[in-house]
Amino acid sequence: MADADRCTPVRSPSPEARDPTMASNALPTSLPVLGGSHELTLRALALEPDSFAIRYFLTPALPETPDGTSPILLALEAEDDLGNEYTDWGGAFGSAPDGSYTSGTIAGQPGVPAEARGLRLRITFLRNAEEFPYELTLPVAYDA
After folding, report:
1. Residue 16: partners with Cβ closer than 8 Å, 6 or more residues away
2. What residues contact residue 66 under an 8 Å CB cut-off, 6+ apart?
């Protein structure tokens, strides 16, 4: 997979706002991140013809600066079980109204082919020039 040097977060419309007909794979998968100080919960893998998006929660919420950005960045690399590689396509995030968690999406491109059955992810958190990489595989299933 490629280096994780392209990790500028992009605030964009949610995947649902771009295409309400996309396939979605419900998955609740959780793992401790950032040295165990947070829990990352992957909620769904949404598949579109030209991209995919992963919806997630982070508990507790990521810190935010007064302008709404975070000093912690997220980068994505992926490869499917067919050997196709995917690049980070940005994402969006925000804290819950009560500040208890961060909700967001991170997207990759191009779209995942219907023949793929698994998507191996490398999600890297970047904080103060330190990388916290995590690898996991998600099942892929298109709606019939």
Report:
1. 22, 46
2. none
> pTM value?
0.76
CA-to-CA separations, 14 to 1, 35, 99, 107, 123, in angstroms, rounded:
26, 28, 20, 10, 19
Asked if residue 134 lies in contact with residue 123, where contact means CB atoms within 8 angstroms, the answer is yes
The whole-angstrom separation of Cα 42 and Cα 25 is 11
pLDDT tens-place string over residues 10-54: 223 333 333 333 345 656 688 999 999 999 999 989 999 999 999
C-beta separation of 53 from 94 below 8 A: no
List Cα–Cα distances, 96 to 7, 37, 44, 102, in angstroms. 23, 18, 18, 6
Strands of 72-80's sheet in order across: 23-33, 38-48, 51-59, 102-109, 85-95, 72-80, 118-127, 130-139
Tokens representing 66 are 């007064």
| Rounded CA separation 115/137 (Å) | 16
